[in-house]
Every structure is written in C-alpha cells, then in structure tokens.
Amino acid sequence: MSEHDKFSTILKHNHVSMTKPRLAIFRVLLDAKEPLKNGEIARLTPSIDRASVYRTLELFALLNITNTVIRGWTPLTELAGPFRAHHHHISCTECGTTENIEDGTLEDVLKLVASKKGYQLAEHSVELTGLCSSCKETSSRNP
Q1: Can you give the CATH number for the domain in which 39 is found?
Q2: Which helix (H) or strand (E) holds 106?
Q3: How many separate domains does the chain show?
Q4: How far is CA 62 from CA 10, 96, 122, 123, in A?
Q5: Which structural domain, as residue segments, surrounds residue 110?
Q6: Do residues 130 and 105 both lie within one domain?
Q7: Whole-structure pTM over 0.70, yes or no?
Q8: Is 81 or 22 the better-scoring residue by pLDDT?
Q9: SS (HEC) of 9-62
Q10: 111: domain CATH number?
C-alpha cells in the first residue's frame, strides 16, 4: 500500500475528507528529511493560509498521522507510525544537524527499564543532543 493510500485510509476511517490543503501538507511532511517547525511547513505550503496549516497539523496529531518532537523549547512535526519506522533523534547543539537513530539495542534497553519498574512500554521518545563530529573537531581546534 502506498503512503498516499495509507493516508487516505486513515482519513476515511476517521470520517475526515481528503482536501487539497491536507494532501499538500502531508506531501511536505512525506518529503521532509527531518522534523519541521510548523512555521516551516506553512512556508513550504504558500497556497494554504497559515491558520489552515496549523488546524491541519492539529488534526494530523489527533489522528496519529504525525508526532511532535521537542527540541530545546521548539516543537517540531514529523510523520508517525505507518509512514516512518520508529526512530529517535540526535541533534548537534552547535550547528543544529539532526540524525535519526534506529537502534534495536536502545529499544531493548528501554523495554527492560520499563519492565523493571513494572510497566509494559506503550510508547516513548528519546531525543539526544551533543556535538557532531564536525563541530567537535572545529571546537577542539579553537580552544
């Protein structure tokens, strides 16, 4: 099933119509290589008024089409569940570069920690920050 078909199915299942603005915003998120600020999504969909972009993003979050990732104090939006494999992020505090982390060992450790506390893990989000190799190298050359 294509990403578009999955999107359409989620909307139909929730009795929500497919509109041009919703499809345009979905495509922006589908093409994004990293989580985006809501303002960036609005900028990338100039034919859609800003209020409609924000309402659509709220709807997508309610329907679990998107996840919100918090970086610092900034909420970012990315596609969720059926559109992207579960992953976490690591971001450089200097240049802002962000990379996805897909690591089975990390997942196993998180499940183990939850289990030791008597929980069955339902969902989680891990956001790591630090200096990327380029910034670390630059930093060590400029004390």
Answers
A1: 1.10.10.10
A2: helix 104-116
A3: 2
A4: 11, 28, 17, 16
A5: 88-141
A6: yes
A7: yes
A8: 22
A9: HHHHHCCCCCCHHHHHHHHHHHHCCCCEEHHHHHHHCCCCCHHHHHHHHHHHHH
A10: 3.30.1490.190
